[in-house]
Amino acid sequence: MDDQARIMQSIGGVSLAGHSVQGGMALPPPHGHDGTDGDGRKQDIGDILHQIMTITDQSLDEAQAKKHGLNCHRMKPALFSVLCEIKEKTGLSIRGAQEEDPPDPQLMRLDNMLLAEGVAGPEKGGGSAAAAAAAAASGGAADNSIEHSDYRAKLTQIRQIYHTELEKYEQACNEFTTHVMNLLREQSRTRPISPKEIERMVGIIHRKFSSIQMQLKQSTCEAVMILRSRFLDARRKRRNFSKQATEILNEYFYSHLSNPYPSEEAKEELAKKCSITVSQGVGSTITVSQVSNWFGNKRIRYKKNIGKFQEEANLYAAKTAVNAAHAAAAAVQSQANSPTTPNSGFQMKDEEFQLDSAESKNTLLTNMFTGSSGSFNLPNSGDMFLSMQSLNGDSYQGAQVGANVQSQVDTLRHVISQTAGYNDALGGNTIIDLCLVAQQSSVQSLLKQQLTKDPVKARSCLEQSKVRLAKTGSLGEALPCHFHSALPTSPSPSPPSS
DNA sequence: CGGGATGATTATAA
DNA sequence: TTATAATCATCCCG
Which residues form the PBC domain (predicted)? Predict the structure, then answer.
């Protein structure tokens, strides 16, 4: 409208001097000069302009008819060329107004986010296909599919709405653009419109629509964010694992204390195991990522305060030992009286800690030292020695011997791992020293004495190590009295009550 | 109700 | 990518 008015004004000012057409009202022609060619034409022009200016006030049919009439008017070509001329002069300002629209950073951000959330981008089909794609995209997070299904369903919903809306907007945009272009093309018959102008108009329309699109994208992002936060909130609402599940995890942790980093397969297995035991009670399952979380937390918390976990560690060391003993008992029963192969059938799953039978004797002894160290500060410290005696006794069958070895190997691993794996913690050197000492000849002689039933001398050796311990370490706290539950004190080892 | 235990998330480094 | 460290948020027990 402004342009039109301006052009009209220009016409009035430049080409049609003397005739004001402002407001669409042509002044009556000057009197006394009737019949002159110029005046008649001017009146004609004024009339035409008047018709043009009032055309919008008329009904559509009327206007259409009038338009046709004007198009066929004899003055039209002349007027058209005048308009062209005027446009030529005012065109500069229009042309100067065009700007290269740089990509809106906010829009880009929104686009990126939608892409990242999987809302935008290629359609991933529906249902399981989307699930597989999502799992593949997040790299082995397939285990979360159950808990994520709800989230994904909602996300898919959002994506569908988004795409529907987007399509609708695009369609509307195209329709409107086509409409405007047709309009402009038609108008170009009555006024000069360059292709560039049409292009510009299209650009304006697209910009308008893209701003609408941005609103759509923004609200979609908001929806996703809300969904996400709700989802995360829901996940934050944690439930403690069942006792059985925790037990399974702890068992693994403490029996792999030197390297408590379960492989992906191990995690899967643990998750499955936990889920199975859990599913009897609650309907929840434990995922691989939860196992990872658990191990992550456990490692860091164990490391932070080893002392606090001693009790637990010993408990589980004993537990796994007993379990292993029970599992192996049947296998070993057939060769019950073969003391030279106490370790057969008790191979650790962890190759790293497989010991041959000769070494296992040393281990056993070492373990007696390290293990008993915790009892030195206790009034019933004699128990440990007694258990050594009984260990040496003939009443033990192969299975029990195996159990003892197993138990102590576990415990040794446990103790060593404290120093090797986390050697900055309490009294690490003491234990290392002890282990070294234990493997030296003096200790081996102790073993021999033990084996040859010389408890008195063995005891003196033990006393020596006691002194050594007392001098060097605070191990007493590290290995509390619970420890000897890991050691055989009765001929038939039974699982410690948990 | 307070505080420790614990599962989950986040930030950061290797 | 994964492990760690810190932190958050909730659970749970006394």
Answer: 40-233
Strand B closer than 7 Å to the CB of A238? yes
> What distance in Å separates the CA atoms of residue A402 and residue A335, rounded to the nearest whole number?
11
A109-128 pLDDT per residue, tens: 788 777 767 777 665 444 44
- The count of C-alpha atoms lying within 13 angstroms of the C-alpha of A179, restricted to the half-sphere facing its C-beta, is 7
Residue A418 in 3-state DSSP?
Answer: helix
| N-terminal to C-terminal alpha carbon distance within chain A | 88
Q: What is the pLDDT of residues A76-104, one digit of tens each?
A: 788 778 777 887 777 655 555 555 666 77
Q: Does residue A208 carry a pLDDT above 70?
A: yes
> Tell me, in Å, how far CA of A93 is from C1' of B5?
73
Q: With a threshold of 0.85, does the pTM exceed it?
A: no
CA torsion sign for A374, A450, A330, A359 is positive
In whole angstroms, what is the distance from residue A298 CA to residue A468 CA?
32
- Three-state secondary structure along A112-168? HHHHHHCCCCCCCCCCHHHHHHHHHHCCCCHHHHHHHHHHHHHHHHHHHHHHHHHHH
Q: How far is the CA of A292 from the C1' of C1 (A)?
A: 14
Within A188-242, residue ranges assigned H as helices are: 195-236
Is the CB of residue A106 less than 8 Å from the CB of residue A234? Answer: no
A236 CB inside 7 Å of strand B: yes
Distance CA A213, CA A107 (A): 9
* A228 in contact with nucleic chain C (CB within 7 A): no
Q: Which two tokens stand for residue A225?
A: 């964010």
Which nucleotides on strand C sit less than 7 A from a protein beta carbon? 1-12
CA→C1' distance for A73 and B4 (Å) = 95
Tokens of A312: 């637990």
Decide: CB of A292 under 7 A of nucleic strand C.
yes
Residue A240 CB in 7 A reach of strand C = yes
Query: What pLDDT was estimated at residue A41?
Result: 67
